[in-house]
Amino acid sequence: MKMIRYVPLFLIILFSCSEDLPEDVNNNPLDPNQATENNFSTPALVFYPHEISPLPGSDFTVQVFAMEVDSNAGAHMQIQYDHAKMHVVGFAQGAFYSDASDMLFYFEDDSAAGVIDIYTGYLGVDSSYVSGTGELASITFNARVDWDTVISFTENCRLAGPQNEDIEILGFGECAVYAQ
Fold first, then answer.
1. What is the pLDDT of residues 97-111, one digit of tens each?
2. How many helices and strands in the chain, by DSSP H and E?
3. How far is Cα 147 from Cα 85, in angstroms, rounded to an integer?
4. Predicted structure pTM score
5. Where are the beta strands (DSSP E) in the chain?
6. Cis omega (within 30 of 0) for bond into 32
7. Which residues contact 173 (CB under 8 A, 6 or more apart)?
8. For 30-57, what is each residue's pLDDT tens digit?
9. Angle CA(170)–CA(171)–CA(172) in degrees, nearest 5?
10. Which DSSP symbol is given to 50?
11. If you classify domain 2-179 with CATH, what class do you get?
């Protein structure tokens, strides 16, 4: 008799979970399996989230990640944004190089051109490096008005190994911003 009470609950759970999921439910720019499925090559520089919808006049934060990188000791990221539609409010260092005692984190915002330069990595001669996927920085913007735009990396980005050798960047992500 007790089992009969649980059957309707089981059926409700079973059928409520069997709905088709939206196509973009797993649209995570940091998922290496999805990157492979979308023909997105790594190592890469990507934004998280890759799409955001802030309210006009509000602040929103975008994280900058190195994805599937091997032996990375430093990075220069140059990011372009539409300065007429948003402005930079702040920067924060990411945790990718968190175990470094001597850490470089420098940023410069050319608000007139809508270009951000971020330099981050290990200092010193001990040849420290990290591998994998990790956050390099986060940038907080303010959405000025209703608009759609894209935050993107320029071709002037660089990842470097422990001996200052170039690590080829094979993919660049974008962040679509829909202020509404």
1. 887 667 889 999 999
2. 2, 13
3. 7
4. 0.79
5. 44-48, 51-52, 59-72, 74-80, 86-93, 103-110, 115-122, 130-143, 147-153, 158-160, 166-167, 171-172, 174-179
6. no
7. 29, 40, 44, 45, 46, 47, 50, 67, 153
8. 566 666 566 678 999 999 999 999 999 9
9. 140
10. S
11. mainly beta
